[in-house]
Each structure stands twice: as C-alpha cells, then as structure tokens.
Amino acid sequence: MPPSPAPAQGRCQRLKLASSRDHDTVDTLVMAARPFADRERYARFLHVQHAFHGSLLGLYQDATLNRWLPGLAQLSRFAAVQADMNDLGLGVPPMPAQVAVEAPKALGWLYCSEGSNLGAAFLFKQTQQLGLDAAFGARHLAPHPQGRALHWRAFVEQVDGQVLSEEEEAQAVRGAIAAFDGYRAHMRQVFGDALDA
C-alpha cells in the first residue's frame, strides 16, 4: 500500500476526533474519583499515573520512535511521578508491564500521554489546594519549561509530519483508543470502590 501524507486536518486532529468519546469517559472517571479531595485520594491518583506513565517508558525510550520524534526520551513523566510518590512518603510500586506495540500504533499512545499534559493545567491547580506544587508532590503535572501550549504544538508538528500508509494511520487511531482504554482500566483498578460513575 503506497504511503500517504497526514490527512489535511492533521494527524493529531484526526486522533482527537476518533478518540473523543474515549477521552470524555476518562475525564468523567477522573472527576468521579475526586482525586484532589484530600492527599489520600491524590495518593491513589499517583498510583494510576505510575501505572500508566510507567507502562509507556519503553515507548519513550524506543530508538525508532526517537528518530521519528527527536527528543521524545526526555518527555516521559514517569520519573516525575516517582518523585511525587517519594515526596509524599508513598511506597513506589514495581515497574509496570510495558506497552509493546509497533511504531505507528505507538503514536496513538503517545498522543494520549502528551495530550494529557496539555490538559493537566486544571489538575495542577487542584493540587495546590493540597499544598503541592512543581517542586513537591505535583511535579508530573507541572507545565513543560517551554509552556504547555508551545510544547504541545511542537509535539503535534512532529507527529503530523510522519508519512504513514492508510493501515498505519488506522493503527495510530487504534493506539489512541487503546491508551484511553488502558487508563480507564488503571482508574477502575485503583479507584473502583470510590467511583461515582
């Protein structure tokens, strides 16, 4: 199958449209969990973040993906999640099982992960009510040094610039949906007894 350039609206825009329902259900679960009601619930949230971001560490370190998206290895927030857990005196769980997918599908997973940083501005503000900030307990939710918007635009430009076949485009969409599915599973595992929805 001959390769095709990213769709006219941009690959990340296509991923957004294809996974919008999945994204919304994750938002609903997070709000239902009330992770910023107190530090105990926030500690649970950190376990969710540890499971999700830890499972993606291999993708962030993948050589092929770093050729496609230069600088990707430096974007992982897993170390920041671990530091947040240490700040709060939490036991850091074992390393999660790694997501192992081909590069096109990985783009969808990374879209979900990096997009969550764009949307973390609200979450970061909530942590401040718990006495947490970019230097203590909420490092992984803090904005990128370049700013959330600028960082996101640079990431989108890299992802949109990849030349993929139609099947690889479909794999990227499946990856994004799988990433949201995975995050929902982590939420239900950690907050199952405390979710309102």
Indicate the overall shape: globular
Class of secondary structure makeup: mainly alpha
CATH architecture: Up-down Bundle
Q: Spell out the CATH superfamily.
A: Heme oxygenase-like
In words, what does this structure look like?
The chain is built from nine helices and no strands. The protein is mainly alpha-helical and 197 residues long. The chain has one domain: Heme Oxygenase, Chain A (Up-down Bundle), CATH 1.20.910. Helix 1 (11-33) packs parallel to helix 9, helix 2 (39-55) packs antiparallel against helix 9 (166-191) and helix 6 runs antiparallel to helix 8 (148-160). The longest helix is centred in the C-terminal third of the chain and has 26 residues, at 166-191. The radius of gyration is 17 Å and the shape is globular. The mean pLDDT is 92.
Describe the secondary structure blueprint for this structure.
Layout: H1 11-33, H2 39-55, H3 57-61, H4 63-68, H5 78-87, H6 103-118, H7 120-128, H8 148-160, H9 166-191
Helix pairs in contact: 1-9, 2-5, 2-9, 6-8, 6-9
Question: Gist?
Answer:
The protein is mainly alpha-helical. Helices cover 63% and strands 0% of the residues. The chain has a single domain, classed as Heme oxygenase-like (Heme Oxygenase, Chain A), CATH 1.20.910.
Primary descriptors:
single chain, 197 residues, mainly alpha, Heme Oxygenase, Chain A, 9 helices, 63% helix
